[in-house]
């Protein structure tokens, strides 16, 4: 266990609410290298509260990198300088004594700031609530082993399903595109037999909401994949685009059938 | 005073649930939409309940304090979910899962509930697969299983080390489907702060809108609480930062009895504490014990690095003490054994940690196999500690993890308040004094998918609860009480922070109401908690206002309830003059240090009725064991 504490200068974004202007405020802190980044913020907040100043508001919950609640832009990168971790898994041993650290909320038109470092990511749920499921009621399902799925297929589907819904992909993208997030859900189901009956209707509906909410388009910079704490692959975006095109063709076919 | 009636149906245990399902009344499909049901919490139990009730046609209002249903802490469960499918042909059956769970709970659970749990366990797996949950598979396309602590069969289904995540996302997808269809309305960023009873019946809740601070009222014909456990009373636990007891505690204060509050589970495989700035403890999945071997040095205060300690100077104490279960011994037993060796001064470098070593497994199976099984867990470990577990053994220590106690419910999952149902970890029901690994996910989903849709329908069809609106004077009264409490907290303007108080409460709880308890310590704890609570109400500081996002205020409100709950936990532990499961009283042990249960005097559920500040009345639900005869729980 390391004992020598680090002295750091923090520049943290403070913003009273959605409609007010925000700015960076300076904080000096001494912290153990074994502490996590969020524990460092806890310490600062404890000091602020003890002197009757409002705590820096940020969100976190599981602090194990799985719930997707936390998410800060640290020195310009969503979830900080390391790859494949969420903010809560970042530890102070990854910073140098005397370093200045910039801390900001995720920034995207579709993720408005609520307060300080908290943003509104409810758009993600609106997308999932428009077809992001397999339609099956409770009960009346066949025995689980009646749906055999090849190990590799299950594994690919699981890769996509690992998404924690944190929004780092949107924050990383210059277009604030949500296509990595949406395509991960589309792919999870598109790869499995259970997802087939609604495959094309699903992609059509989800993409429409995604566009309506003001998320941008993908221009293949791969920034989303680079910052994704779960390493979700951009091949999912390709799969979604392909399914989306197929859905348009199927729709045209169906319409021309009607005309005939 | 309410008489406790567990409402266990008659008949043979294997027929109870089937008969009960037939005997329960149904609500006409056309009438269902006229009934509003509130579901608080969107974890496994809450999301599955809200979705299933929505599918049936009820008008469901679902609540979560998170920004999204998917954030509930069920998401963090790693290891797996049990089901008596017997896909491995290794002798599993509904009866064996039932037997293991009753025995694992040290004979302090209700047989009929546990049997039902085992009975529906297979349906859960079918349901999740149909939803598109990507469980681990074998090459032939069949589902894979693994073994887990406390069982000798392989009945655990898993999705890498992220089973809870996948099951929750499955349940949330079912919830999302109902939201899409308009049967469920989801309210996010709402914290339930009280329940509203009209003529003694649950008819609504009061919430704080966490964005605006507004105190909101919601009326319904029935209320389901699926708000999780209360391990954060210890401050440091494996629970998420926002897990809290407020919903069930305030409901307890309105008349719901609290069952077995002292039954808390200390999980054996967590990362040790590094320093006092630490905010929580991280769990490493119990599945690691399938291939990892737990050991400490035979010498006290051994300062050598693990690699320097030769084989003959290592004590694989679980394998030595419990040869038939070894490293897979149940959680309570493994945790206590770790505490014992550390108390002897044989912990790592004399401190509070033991080794979990994969060297043998890597030699036997190769690094690739271990990587496949536990890769992501090893990564998590390395991220947090900066050490590579493929090369040096992991360091672990027990930490508060799960609470078997919770609101008392009958067989229908209804509390002592009519119309108020409690699901998942929030109720006391199925795990007795100790929960087995991979059983929490099973219980949450059993309650939500397969129990509550029947029992809640039966309540509505038989009790025919009256329609109420939030104009009722009782809503105004309770909402004013909630507002007053908030204002009171904000007006104290003292000097000490909320976390400072919470950490002190946690230290009292861990030291005196933690892994080993004794009469004197428990009595001291009650006094210390009362004093701390008194100081809190004079000296806490909560900056900011009540009409805005205020996370400090949120934490303060939760801590208020932890003081009271902590006191009741100590009193319950003091009342239970025996050792059983996670409850270990130092006065009651055999010479070899094993727990000494007292079936003659304590084979009951302690259900506490709240009478006013610091005052409770104890009610007993006597437990009868017809099918699994209580015996000394041996894993030797």
Descriptive report:
The complex is a heterodimer of chains A (260) and B (636). With 260 residues, chain A is an alpha+beta fold. Chain A folds into two domains: 6-115, Beta-grasp domain (Ubiquitin-like (UB roll)), CATH 3.10.20; 122-259, Alpha-helical ferredoxin (Fumarate Reductase Iron-sulfur Protein, Chain B, domain 2). Helices cover 36% and strands 12% of the residues of chain A. Chain A contains eight helices and seven strands, in the order ββαβββββααααααα. In chain A, the strands form two sheets. In chain A, strands 2-1-5-3-4 form a five-stranded mixed beta sheet. Chain A has a two-stranded antiparallel ribbon with strand order 6-7. In chain A, α5 (179-190) packs antiparallel against α6 (199-212) and α5 crosses α8. The model of chain A has no long low-confidence stretch (mean pLDDT 96). Chain B has 636 residues and is an alpha+beta fold. In chain B, α3 packs parallel to α12 (440-463) and α4 packs across α5. Chain B is globular. Chains A and B meet through α1, α2 and α3 of A and α3, α5, α6, α11 and α12 of B.
Q: What does this entry show, briefly?
A:
By secondary structure, chain A is α+β, with helices and mostly antiparallel strands. Helix content of chain A is 36%, strand content 12%. The two termini of chain B are 44 Å apart.
Shape type of chain B: globular
CATH architecture of the domain at 476-620 in chain B: Up-down Bundle
How far apart are the first and last residues' alpha carbons of chain B, in Å?
44 Å
Query: In what order do the strands lie side by side in the largest sheet of chain A?
Result: 2-1-5-3-4
**CATH domain class name of the domain at 476-620 in chain B:** Mainly Alpha
CATH superfamily of the domain at 476-620 in chain B: Fumarate reductase/succinate dehydrogenase flavoprotein-like, C-terminal domain
Rg of Cα set of chain B: 24 Å
Please state the oligomeric state of the protein chains shown.
heterodimer
Number of helices of chain B: 17
- DSSP, total strands of chain B: 19
Topology pattern of chain A, helix = H, strand = E:
EEHEEEEEHHHHHHH
CATH topology grouping of the domain at 476-620 in chain B: Methane Monooxygenase Hydroxylase, Chain G, domain 1
Low-pLDDT runs of 5+ residues of chain A are: none
Q: What is Rg of chain A?
A: 21 Å
């Amino acid at each position: 266990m390391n004992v020598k504490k680090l002295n750091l200068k923090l520049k943290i974004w403070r913003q009273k609410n959605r409609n007010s202007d925000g700015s960076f405020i300076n904080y000096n802190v001494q912290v153990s290298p074994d502490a996590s980044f969020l524990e460092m913020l806890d310490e600062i907040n404890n000091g602020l509260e003890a002197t009757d100043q409002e705590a820096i508001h940020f969100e976190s919950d599981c602090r194990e990198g799985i719930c997707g609640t936390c998410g800060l832009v640290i020195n310009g990168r969503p979830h900080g300088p390391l790859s494949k971790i969420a903010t809560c898994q970042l530890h102070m041993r990854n910073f140098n004594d005397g370093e200045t650290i910039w801390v900001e909320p995720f920034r995207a038109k579709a993720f408005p700031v609520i307060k300080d470092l908290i943003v509104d990511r409810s758009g993600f749920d609106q997308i999932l609530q428009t077809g992001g499921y397999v339609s099956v009621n409770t009960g009346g399902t066949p025995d689980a082993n009646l749906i055999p799925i090849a190990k590799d297929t299950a594994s690919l589907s699981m890769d996509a399903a690992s998404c924690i819904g944190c929004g780092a992909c949107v924050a990383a993208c210059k277009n604030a595109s949500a296509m990595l997030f949406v395509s991960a859900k589309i792919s999870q189901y598109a790869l499995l037999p259970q997802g087939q009956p609604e495959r094309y209707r699903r992609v059509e509906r989800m993409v429409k909401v995604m566009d309506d909410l003001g998320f941008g388009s993908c221009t293949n910079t791969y920034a989303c994949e680079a910052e994704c704490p779960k390493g979700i692959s951009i091949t999912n975006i390709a799969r979604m685009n392909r399914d989306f095109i197929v859905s348009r063709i199927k729709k045209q076919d169906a319409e021309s059938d009607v005309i005939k | 005073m309410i008489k406790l009636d567990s409402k266990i149906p008659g008949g043979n245990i294997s027929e109870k649930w089937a008969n009960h399902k037939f005997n329960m009344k149904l609500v006409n499909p056309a009438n269902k939409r006229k009934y509003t049901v509130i579901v608080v919490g969107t974890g496994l139990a809450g999301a599955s309940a809200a979705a299933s009730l929505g599918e049936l046609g009820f008008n469901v209002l679902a609540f979560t304090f998170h920004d999204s249903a998917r954030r509930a802490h069920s998401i963090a469960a790693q290891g797996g979910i049990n089901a008596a499918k017997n896909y491995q042909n290794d002798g599993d059956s509904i009866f064996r899962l039932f037997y293991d769970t009753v025995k694992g709970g040290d004979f302090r659970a209700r047989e009929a509930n546990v049997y039902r749990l085992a009975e529906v366990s297979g349906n859960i797996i079918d349901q999740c697969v149909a939803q598109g949950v990507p469980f681990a598979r074998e090459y032939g396309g069949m589902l894979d299983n693994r073994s887990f602590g406390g069982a000798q069969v392989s009945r655990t289904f898993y999705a890498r080390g992220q089973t809870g995540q996948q099951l929750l996302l499955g349940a949330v997808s079912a919830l999302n489907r109902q939201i899409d269809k308009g049967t469920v309305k989801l309210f996010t960023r709402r914290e339930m702060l009280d329940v509203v009873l009209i003529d003694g019946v649950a008819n609504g809740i009061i919430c704080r809108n966490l964005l605006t601070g507004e105190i909101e009222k919601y009326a319904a014909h029935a209320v389901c609480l699926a708000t999780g456990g209360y391990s954060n009373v210890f401050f440091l636990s494996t629970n998420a930062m926002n897990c809290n007891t407020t919903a069930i505690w305030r409901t307890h204060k309105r008349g719901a009895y609290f069952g077995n509050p002292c039954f808390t589970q200390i999980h054996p495989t967590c990362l040790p504490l590094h320093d006092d700035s630490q905010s929580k403890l991280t769990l490493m999945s119990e599945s690691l014990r399938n291939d990892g071997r737990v050991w400490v040095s035979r010498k006290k205060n051994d300062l050598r690095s693990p690699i320097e300690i030769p084989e003959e100077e290592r004590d694989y104490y679980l394998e030595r003490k419990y040869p038939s279960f070894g490293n897979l011994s149940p959680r309570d037993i493994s945790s206590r054994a770790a505490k014992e060796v550390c108390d002897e001064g044989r912990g790592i470098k004399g401190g509070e940690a033991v080794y979990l070593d994969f060297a043998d497994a890597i030699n036997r199976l190769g690094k690739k196999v271990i990587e496949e099984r536990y890769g992501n867990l090893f990564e998590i470990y390395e991220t947090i500690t900066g050490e590579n577990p493929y090369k040096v053994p992991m360091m672990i220590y027990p930490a508060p993890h799960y609470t078997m106690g919770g609101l008392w419910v009958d067989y229908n999952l209804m509390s002592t308040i009519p119309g108020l149902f409690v699901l998942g970890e929030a109720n006391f029901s199925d795990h007795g004094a100790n929960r087995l690994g991979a059983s929490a996910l099973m219980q949450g989903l059993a309650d939500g998918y397969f129990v509550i849709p029947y029992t809640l329908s039966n309540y509505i069809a038989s009790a025919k609860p009256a329609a109420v609106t939030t104009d009722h004077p009782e809503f105004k009264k309770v909402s004013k009480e909630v507002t007053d409490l908030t204002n009171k907290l904000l007006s104290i303007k003292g000097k000490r922070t909320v976390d400072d108080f919470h950490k002190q409460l946690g230290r009292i709880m861990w030291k005196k109401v933690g892994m080993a308890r004794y009469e004197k310590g428990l009595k001291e704890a009650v006094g210390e908690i009362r004093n701390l609570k008194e100081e809190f109400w004079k000296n806490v500081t909560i900056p900011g206002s009540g009409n805005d996002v205020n996370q400090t205020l949120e934490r303060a409100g939760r801590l208020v309830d932890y003081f009271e709950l902590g006191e009741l936990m100590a009193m319950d532990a003091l009342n239970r003059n025996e050792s059983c499961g996670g409850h270990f009283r130092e006065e009651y042990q055999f010479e070899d240090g094993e727990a000494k249960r007292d079936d003659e005097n304590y084979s009951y559920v302690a259900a506490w009725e709240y009478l006013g500040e610091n005052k409770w009345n104890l009610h007993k639900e006597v437990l009868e064991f017809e099918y699994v005869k209580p015996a000394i729980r041996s894993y030797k």
